[in-house]
Design brief:
binds D-glutamic acid; Rossmann fold; about 260 residues; alpha/beta; four-stranded parallel β-sheet; six-stranded parallel β-sheet
C-alpha cells in the first residue's frame, strides 16, 4: 500500500480524458494533475522543446511527491517518454504502449491506423511500437490538426465535424482498416462521430487503456492506495478565458478552481 498520489501531466486540459479514466479504474487513488495551459499546444512543436517542457512538468510532479507519473499527452509520450524514463526514479507511463497492446490483442486487427497531432505522427512512435511487437501489421497514420480546435469548441458532432472527419479519414477508410487508435488526448471526444463514419472499424481509446494498465502496474508493484483519499489537486500554468467550461467538456464534471503555478 502506498498513499502517495499519482501524477498526471498533459499539455493542457485534454489529459482530463485520462484523469477521468484513472478515476474509474482506480477510484481510491489521490491524483495531482498538471496541465501546461500556458504553453499548449505541444502538437506541432519540435522534439527538443517537447522534451524540455515535459521534463519541467515531470519535475513539478516529483516535487508534489507522486509515486508515479502518467504522461497523458500523446505528443509528450511520443517524443519525450524515453528521456523521462531515463531521468526519473519512479515509474513513468505513457499512453502509446497501452493503445498499441489493446489493438494487437485482437488477431483480426491486421491493418491499423493511427491518428494524432503532427509531431506525434512525424515521430512514428506508434508505428515503431506496433512493428516491434508484430512487424507484419500494416500501419497507416494521419495527423488531424483540426480535431483539437474542433473539440475545444465543443463541435463534437454534426455537419462541420462530419466534414472534417471525412476530410482526414477518407483515405484511411478506403484502405479497409480493421482498427483505429485515437492517438491524442482530444480525440476520444470525437469517438462517436468517428465510429459512425468508419462503421465496422475497432476504435481504440488510449485514455481508457492506460488507466487499466496503470491499475495493473500499481497492483504488481504493491503501490496501490487501498485507503482511499480520492483527492484531486489540480494545477495549471495559466488560466485562460473559458477554462472552466473547457475542463468540464473533458472531465464531464465541474472541477475545483485550479492553482496556477510556474514550472
Ligand atoms: N495533448 C496533446 C496530445 O495528446 C494534444 C494537444 C496539444 O497539441 O498539445 O497530443
Amino acid at each position: 500500500m502506498n498513499k502517495k498520489p499519482i501524477g498526471i501531466f498533459d499539455s493542457g486540459v485534454g489529459g482530463l480524458t485520462v484523469l477521468r479514466e484513472v478515476r474509474k479504474a482506480l477510484p481510491k487513488e489521490d491524483v495531482v494533475y498538471f496541465g501546461d495551459t500556458a504553453r499548449v499546444p505541444y502538437g506541432n512543436k519540435s522534439q527538443s522543446t517537447i522534451i524540455a517542457f515535459s521534463r519541467q512538468n515531470a519535475l513539478f510532479l516529483l516535487r508534489k511527491k507522486v509515486k508515479m507519473i502518467i504522461v497523458a499527452c500523446n505528443t509528450s509520450s511520443a517524443l519525450a517518454l524515453s528521456d523521462l524514463k531515463k531521468n526519473m526514479n519512479i515509474p513513468v507511463v505513457g499512453v502509446i504502449d497501452s493503445g498499441v497492446i489493446k489493438a494487437l490483442k485482437n488477431p483480426d486487427n491486421k491493418k491499423i491506423a493511427i491518428i494524432g497531432t503532427r509531431s506525434t505522427i512525424k515521430s512514428k512512435s506508434y508505428e515503431k511500437a506496433i512493428k516491434k511487437i508484430n512487424p507484419d501489421i500494416k500501419v497507416y497514420s494521419k495527423s488531424c490538426p483540426l480535431f483539437v480546435p474542433l473539440v475545444e469548441e465543443g463541435v463534437l458532432n454534426g455537419r462541420i465535424s462530419d466534414e472534417v472527419i471525412k476530410m482526414y479519414l477518407e483515405d484511411i477508410k478506403r484502405k479497409g482498416i480493421d482498427a483505429l487508435i485515437l492517438g491524442c488526448t482530444h480525440y476520444p471526444l470525437l469517438k462517436k462521430s468517428i465510429r459512425s463514419y468508419l462503421k465496422d472499424v475497432n476504435v481504440i481509446d488510449s485514455a481508457k487503456e492506460v488507466a487499466l494498465y496503470v491499475s495493473g502496474l500499481l497492483t504488481r508493484k504493491n503501490l496501490l492506495n487501498t485507503g482511499g483519499g480520492k483527492r484531486i489537486d489540480f494545477y495549471v500554468s495559466d488560466e485562460p478565458a473559458g477554462f472552466g467550461k473547457l475542463a468540464k467538456l473533458f472531465l464531464k464534471k465541474n472541477i475545483l478552481k485550479p492553482r496556477v503555478v510556474n514550472v
